[in-house]
Specification:
three-stranded antiparallel sheet; Rossmann fold; 17 helices; alpha/beta; 461 residues; five-stranded parallel sheet; 10 strands
Length: 461
């Protein structure tokens, strides 16, 4: 740990510390709120330095001292700020220094305290406080020039403010045709530009399905080899429980970033075509666009959306709860069943075992699986860490407990986030579309790919 002593109380030192900060590259400068010695206020100052502007609304939920410092630790572990300068260190109490010491021990941050000590007595008192807080491995730098050199140059190219507005090419209403006629009908009904965009989504789904099938499912017998029993063609074989869970996760990953239901339909039809090339029949609900779930009632986690969540929701649990509503597109009654252990180690998947919670004693059914977009993974990481560091918490406890709850609590969460949540306004109360999807092994020779992706010149009526 470094202690920078600015005996001259030079404004250039204060300015250099601010200019050095770059949260996007893991460097933050904490300026403690004056006229208070509260450890909770210092935690909120740290969160603000990370870009979490604490509580924008006067009615927003507040965090007490322990949860606030737990949030500081969890956001540090999840988003990796690794260098910290704390200004006005000569005014820090022993309790505040102990909190900083615990933060440093838990996360391994490189901590620098910048003290403005024109009097010898101020320095002596600061050192006594550091000793009481068990911060004894201190390297001291004195003098304005040496302190400026220790701080280092100003950050270059740092972003200030939110990311640019989101933009995606809007697709027209796509036909309700099944997989056999979907692409041809799009070509007949859409102009060249719209079809090019629709077909790009279709081909992306087709390629994703072929790639996933090549790496996930067990190889099937070659065409003509053990595909028909002596009595004729075998009946289609439904996917096993494990295959069904894998299918749900694939469909969620395919569509979680979809900017509109039209994009989702095109991707899913392409995926169905890719499945047919492997003698697999993928059925999805006919009323796909009226269902809830990934790509239908979700919101892409773009940089601007994540920035909004980051700024407005410093509590990791509440930030992750809003993110989960956005990337799952499901109902809060299902999300409230999410356990701490439901988030896998890499924070890329959420698996909700609803059936075992409702049908106790019956054989397990496929879990509801959702893909976590890369930008949302730090939010889930921080939330899981927050829960596990909360006293008397186990892996089977609810991850989002007390986040949704009663209507007033949910309304307060939505107001704090300031984001539209399509799933909350969706009329469908049934299963999400990807959990209603079914797939069968057809046990017949696979058709060649050109039968599924014909040349468009052959489609003209």
């Amino acid at each position: 740990m470094r202690l920078l002593l600015d005996g001259d109380d030079d404004r250039a030192v204060h300015r250099a510390a601010y200019q050095w900060a770059d949260p996007g590259r893991g460097r933050i400068t904490v300026d403690p709120t004056p006229h208070t010695t509260s450890p909770a206020y210092l935690a909120l100052d740290v969160l603000r330095a990370m870009g979490r502007d604490t509580f924008a609304r006067p009615e927003a939920e507040r965090m007490s001292t322990d949860p606030a410092w737990r949030a500081v630790t969890c956001w540090t572990l999840a988003t990796d700020p690794h260098e910290v300068i704390v200004l006005r260190a000569h005014r820090l109490t022993v309790e505040r220094l102990r909190r900083l010491a615990a933060w440093r021990a838990d996360t391994g941050i490189h901590l620098t305290l910048l003290a403005h000590t024109p009097e010898q007595a101020d320095e002596q008192r600061l050192r006594e406080h550091l000793t009481a807080a068990h911060l004894v491995d201190v390297a001291t730098v004195r003098g304005t020039a040496a302190v400026l050199g220790a701080i280092g140059p100003a950050a270059v190219g740092r972003r200030i403010g939110p990311s640019p507005q989101d933009h995606a090419h809007a697709l027209p209403t796509v036909p309700r045709s099944g997989v056999a006629a979907f692409r041809a009908d799009c070509w007949r009904r859409q102009n060249a530009t719209d079809f090019a965009h629709t077909d790009a989504q279709y081909r992306a789904g087709y390629a994703a399905a072929r790639t996933w099938l090549a790496h996930t499912l067990q190889p099937q017998p070659p065409p003509g080899e053990a595909t028909e029993p002596a009595g004729g063609p075998a009946d289609p074989t439904p996917f096993s429980l494990q295959e069904t869970e894998a299918l749900r996760l694939f469909l969620a990953r395919l569509t979680v970033s979809s900017p509109s239901p039209q994009h989702t339909v095109a991707r899913v039809r392409g995926a169905q075509a890719g499945f047919l090339t492997r003698s697999l029949l993928l059925n999805v609900p006919d009323d796909l666009t009226s269902r809830a779930g990934p790509g239908i009632t979700t919101v892409p986690l773009t940089p601007r959306t994540v920035h909004t969540i980051t700024v407005r929701l410093p509590n990791p649990l509440r930030a992750a709860a809003i993110a989960a509503l956005l990337f799952t597109g499901t109902d809060t009654s299902l999300l409230s069943m999410t356990q701490v252990a439901s988030v896998e180690k890499a924070h890329a998947t959420v698996a909700i075992d609803r059936d075992s919670r409702i049908n106790i004693g019956e054989p397990p059914g496929p879990r509801h699986l959702y893909a976590v977009p890369p930008r949302a993974r730090p939010l889930l990481h921080a939330a899981v860490e927050f829960r596990r560091r909360t006293p008397r918490t186990a892996d089977n406890h609810g991850l989002f407990a007390n986040c949704f709850g009663t209507t007033p609590r949910l309304e307060a969460l939505i107001a704090d986030a300031g984001l539209p949540i399509p799933a909350l306004a969706h009329p469908d109360s049934g299963d999400d579309w990807h959990t209603a999807a079914r797939c069968w092994h057809l046990n017949t020779p696979a058709p060649p790919a050109p039968d599924v992706l014909p040349r468009l010149g052959e489609l003209r009526p």
